[in-house]
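The instructor's notes for this session suggest beginning with a concrete chain rather than abstract definitions. Hand out the sequence below and ask the class to guess, before any prediction is shown, which regions might be ordered.
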Amino acid sequence: MSTADGNQLGRRTLLRATAVIPAAGTVGVASGATPSHAATSKAGGHRYDPDSPRFSLAVLPDTQYLFDADSSDPEPLRATFRYLVSQRADANIAFMAHLGDVTEHGSRDEITLAATTFGTIHGKVPYSVLAGNHDINSGTDDQRGDSAYLDAFGPRRFSAMPTFGGSSPDGYNSYHVLPGGGHQWLVLALDWRVSAAGLRWAQKVLDDHPTLPAILTTHDLVWADDEGSAQLSDNGRRLWDNLIRGNDQIFLALGGHYWPPGRTVLTNDAGNDVHVHITNYQDRYYGGAGMIRLYAFDLVRNMIDIETFSPWFLNRDPEKRTPLEAETVELTGPVDRFSLDVDFERRFSGFAPVKPRKPRPASAVMPRGTLAYWRFDASGAASRAGADGPVGTDTVVRDLSGHGNDLRVTRLHDSGPEILTWSGDHHRDQPTHASLRFDGGKSPDRGATLTTYATAPLNSEKFTGGYTIETFIKLPDPFEGDHAWMGILSWEGRNGDAGKTTGWSPAEPTCSLNVTPERFLQFVVYPHVQNADPTSWSHALPVGRWSHIAVVNDGHHTVIYVDGSKIARNPSQPSTGIATLGKPFVIGATQFDERFNQSFYGWIGDTRIVKRPLRPQDFMTSMA
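After discussion, reveal the predicted structure:
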């Protein structure tokens, strides 16, 4: 704890909450060893998915006013812990880190009550705790020896946790290795005052885990002004100079102790950003009411989204909240609710460079039911000589599934040779390290297509048992010109000719995957069975970055995935099969009124059609 002014911030309505085991014992455990269990996917019946690209870290700052002699009230913290347990699956909560000052005086009674309260979360969500100046003799460092705090929150308490890696010999510093997003992450929990020996221990932990990105937690790190601009405290400067700045692994450092909350970005010796935050709400109503901060990591969007709220107040009937409760239920100011833009691959490349995935043979990515598979390297097109350049109109792209759905090249509207070119650009998880670059557009109309021959079996396939259509695309940056409703792939043939009467135009193709003017995906299909036009709509696709797209139909409904994530706007309308009319399948454009006038602009990679619904783990991005 330390003082400054509190912030007056807004609020927003959030989720809900809902769940206990006694304290642990004394000192023990030494440094160094990596936890024998690299991941935990289930705890107390509340599932955590360590492979999901989205996971959360919960941060709990100074709770000392809830454990203050005879005025203690642990219920807000119990509510916070019940929330974390009940929401572990939905928010994919990997871990919780307490930032110190668990109690006000560090007395054995306060510490015991706090340790018992932590029983609500113990064994259900892994967590770390570190000593703040109110938990121990504040005039000492981590060599202080025995204490009531160490008896309750020493290494023995954490030794059975699947994330626990070890502690310093004194027991006051610890580390955890937690799984998240298919990777491992290091969390350092350092004492209020780390000794020289403690710093050497922390450095050894980092040296023993040289490829793991690290989050440093401690009690006294930075303080902030009323605008939320943070700067290093004296102790924070010591940690920065002696540990943080020289270890590129540390990309996020979190502290409590002071208020108001704040944040800053510092540059380490490798020239990379280190996000440094202070989180503390003890000055607010009810000592912060067990308020937590959730750091939601999104490895697909390269973002960390941060929100701050009190589950205790959140769980109350909004109509019955007092004004102070309503004011404290969630904080929405710029230092309490914000997002960090972190290119994780680039940021971690100095110590954990990503090894490019090797190309995979066609045989490795053709599951049962594969009806067509095209790739744009020499294995898929004999005329592909290896160098980039124009794709000739005599080019035949072979269907590697062996079903005879070969593609021929056509230039549209008198377009020149540069309208379609070979490219070595590709999605990192694409089986082939090659693609086609389309330069289609409007005003004037121009473009190129790859089209099946008239006798191809794909032209008449109805897919009544379901299907999966996959492709990789990349939109140029900048995305300039008129490319509204450009087609990625489609079947020729008009829905009106199939007897469909529900569409906005009888000239619309019976099935097409398009990009709207806002760069949303649109997948519209006229089913073989129903007189309907169920349509899926995605979010805006990024520019300058590859996206994997999968359209999955189980014979009843269609769901679209972008980079393995299900989009929001999938129709509930029944959809059985595709009303193909014996007309060719097309890559690179959509046809209206017998004219291709919505040609693709960008890159298209491997494209596969499977005659059954696939699970995300069977998509081309995942197959070995």
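Then share the key points. The radius of gyration is 29 Å. DSSP finds nine helices and 37 strands in the chain.
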